[in-house]
Amino acid sequence: MKLKDWHFIFGLASAILGIVPIGLAAAPYHLLKEIQVGGEGGGSCLSIDEHARRLYVVQAGKIVIIDLKEEQVIGAITNTLGVHGFAIAPSLGFGYYGSGQDAGLHMVNLRGLRTFKRITAGKDLRTILYEPGRQQIYAFDGSSHSAKAYEADDGDYLATIQLSGTPGAAASEPKAGLVYCNIEDKDEVLIINNKTRKVVNHWPVAPGKTPSGMAIDATSHRLFIGCANKLMVMMDSEKGRAIATVPIDEGAGGNAFDAGTGLAFTSCGKGTVIIVREETPDKLAVVQTLMTQPGARTMALDPVTHKIYLATASSRSLPEQAAGAERPSPEIVPSGFKVLVYGMDESAKPAK
């Protein structure tokens, strides 16, 4: 039985008997390790290849590679020309990143760690998405408010899709044949048919505003969206309506959903991750407010181990200020970039 099934049973027990569900009162996630990466700048994107057991971290002009078995840096993809965003096609062994310097979408052979093709795609590629249903790559451009679709195997151009505003995070639902994208300045989710590559709908995220991160539960047809007005919104991905919200902290960044545990996550730059579960089809319950570190805004989840990884830079504590004085921001430690690893104890993990 999966952990989310136990959660449902315990939820019924708590409602009937007035008890606290086991495993929910004792915050399950905690810090396991800090992986020292070094170098300047923060991580704008974290991507996991669960089959190759690698974590790719976009950092200041390069893509750092971390072995997930040993949890240590094993190399980097360099000369990436202002890299932003990174998507992986595991079955093809390819990666794809956008460049802010040459307006290109670049294809990488992940076995040889070699960039082998550049495609003109857009000046401000904010999100790169691999859509596995038809093996397509979507490159979302903020400057032109458009997305371009390409064949993932060879980079051949397929279509340009005009968007309603500035794109944010995106997700796909292959069985439904749909791609979802946050439109940050319109407070909506835009839906693309992955066969026709045309926009088929727009859904408001109200009461959420300025949606940023997005994750999907394709089984229950739920989108989890982190919003700048300190809300996580759960949206019905079939009917297009926001059906539940929970409060989150400032600086909403990444979202993730773990099908193995039934938990959804929103990472916040203030230094927290809000972890929730779907208590009923129209209600979310906060399982844990996980304390991380300030600036840890980008996140990736490993569905194999159920660990989450967050990127941030080390900072020095500053002396106390006089009463009434404005406290300055913490001082960033040079070469202090790192990846934080959080996970559950073995007893809390779902059975294999």
Concise overview:
The protein is mainly beta. The protein has one helix at 3-17, and strands at 30-36, 43-49, 54-59, 62-67, 72-77, 83-89, 94-99, 104-109, 114-120, 125-131, 136-141, 146-151, 157-162, 167-173, 178-183, 188-193, 198-204, 211-217, 222-227, 231-236, 241-247, 252-258, 263-268, 272-280, 283-291, 298-301, 308-316, 331-343.
SSE topology:
Layout lengths: L2 H15 L12 E7 L6 E7 L4 E6 L2 E6 L4 E6 L5 E7 L4 E6 L4 E6 L4 E7 L4 E7 L4 E6 L4 E6 L5 E6 L4 E7 L4 E6 L4 E6 L4 E7 L6 E7 L4 E6 L3 E6 L4 E7 L4 E7 L4 E6 L3 E9 L2 E9 L6 E4 L6 E9 L14 E13 L9
Antiparallel strand pairs: 1-28, 2-3, 3-4, 4-5, 6-7, 7-8, 8-9, 10-11, 11-12, 12-13, 14-15, 15-16, 16-17, 18-19, 19-20, 20-21, 22-23, 23-24, 24-25, 26-27, 27-28
Descriptive notes:
It is a single chain. By secondary structure, the protein is mainly beta. Helices cover 4% and strands 55% of the residues. The chain has one helix at residues 3-17, and strands at 30-36, 43-49, 54-59, 62-67, 72-77, 83-89, 94-99, 104-109, 114-120, 125-131, 136-141, 146-151, 157-162, 167-173, 178-183, 188-193, 198-204, 211-217, 222-227, 231-236, 241-247, 252-258, 263-268, 272-280, 283-291, 298-301, 308-316, 331-343. A four-stranded antiparallel β-sheet has the order 1-28-27-26, with no helix packed on it. It has a four-stranded antiparallel β-sheet with strand order 2-3-4-5, with no helix packed on it. A four-stranded antiparallel β-sheet has the order 6-7-8-9, with no helix packed on it. Strand 3 and strand 4 (62-67) form a beta hairpin. The protein is globular, with a radius of gyration of 20 Å. Mean pLDDT is 87; it is low at 1-26.
